[in-house]
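User: Please run a holo structure prediction.
Assistant: Happy to. Please share the sequence and the ligand.
User: Here you go; the ligand is flavin-adenine dinucleotide.
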Amino acid sequence: MATKKHLIVGAGTAGYNAIRTLRQSGSQDQIALVSAEHPYSRMVLPYFLEQGISEGHTATVSLNQLEKWDVELHLGRRAVSLDTQNNKLTLDNGDELEYDDLLIATGSSAVRLNLPGADGEGVHGFWTLADARAVSRLVSPQSHVAMVGAGFISFTILNGVIQRAGQVTIVEVAGRILPRMVDDAGAAVVSRWLEARGVTLRTGAQLKSIEDSGGKKRLSFADGAPLDADLVIMATGISTNLSWLKGSGITINQGIVVDDHLRSNVANVYAAGDIAEGKNRITGAMEVHAIEPTAAEHGRVVGANMAGREVAYPGSLMLNIVGVAGLDIASFGAWDDPDATVIVGRRDATNSYRKYLLRDNRMIGAIYVGESNETWSGNDLGMLKGLVQSGVNLDGWADHLSRNPFDIKRPYLANRVVSSLMPQTTLGQSSPSPR
Ligand SMILES: Cc1cc2nc3c(=O)[nH]c(=O)nc-3n(C[C@H](O)[C@H](O)[C@H](O)COP(=O)(O)OP(=O)(O)OC[C@H]3O[C@@H](n4cnc5c(N)ncnc54)[C@H](O)[C@@H]3O)c2cc1C
């Protein structure tokens, strides 16, 4: 029997999960992988910086395993154009690859601020393994590190920077830290925690230039004194790697627009992960969710569909979870919905902050800030995620939560969140072990 040829572009979380699912589904079809980088997980790079794992442990799959899975490899190669009429992908060395179906999983790249000195020596991003190697080599107990950007990605590496640098200053143009992850009250708790640990916060600071000055990097601002640092790490946003798709006929908005099977407007072309614009599970809106769980789920759904199953994806849950110096910070779903009913709990003595957002008796979003020992002794984080993800009807429990905002265990158990989530596994079955 003639086999199909599946072509995967991008060896990040989405691409790898598609290949794994194809083979674990028993597919004997041909698989080819094109990727600018070898397969590794960006999400674990902060642990490499913290020296908790070696560089080898950032890999998601070995070349040996890919060989066993009989994957034709084009690593270190970029896709430069796509001809969807003739099912042909062109690489940067001029090679052309044909396919029966194609997964575009080229993810996103870090974006630096467009200002003088942003590309200079001593200024680094933290998006790729090469970035992580460079920062890890340069940071030392003698160094003053300026982190430009106080968003989620900046916070994922903050722990490592605090552990390994002598001095840390965070520079953020917005009036507070984590502007797209938590609300004002949550950010205030985190700010206090960081300042008590010697981190300097400069919010509302508009960076104008970075220059070399006396062996240091001098950061100048629209207002206020300049800042001298030894190393600058810029985490100022990301953009999807879409430019190579110009002229391909693929419909693009913020990302590649996909249907509930993660197909683009071209029936044999799928998209997954950071590059895809799919359904938000809570609101139904079409959005890019540039997070690891979405990339993994998307990849698995596409792999199953390529293998011939008909798997629909219910949409992804926006979630960000990060821990910094013993404080855990998280937000789920529609945590900033201005029209939701809001329940707030706070215990300043223990740096605990909770915010629950409800609509029609369902929890549609939540914010969590709490010390790590509290997080892991109570598992409130996991329960909150379950409550938002399951969308169980909390009829009668809003009053309980208003009076006892720190007791989410009872509504979680009484409303059988676990059993309502059980049948909702991504592929409708339990996941086999990774290898
Ligand atoms: C430091 C850091 C920490 C993070 N922490 C978290 C976290 O705690 N939680 C979380 O949910 N998310 C986290 N993320 C985000 C998460 O890593 C991404 O959402 C995830 O990597 C997306 O997977 P992807 O497969 O879509 O894309 P990527 O992982 O970006 O993979 C894209 C692949 O495509 C390749 N590629 C790009 N362009 C081309 C081309 N033209 N031709 C061929 N190949 C190409 C790239 O080389 C790469 O191999 C973090 C990211 C970083 C950088």
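Residues 9-15, 34-37, 42-43, 45-46, 78-79, 105-108, 126-127, 153, 156-157, 241, 244, 273-275, 290-293, 295 surround flavin-adenine dinucleotide (CB under 6 Å).
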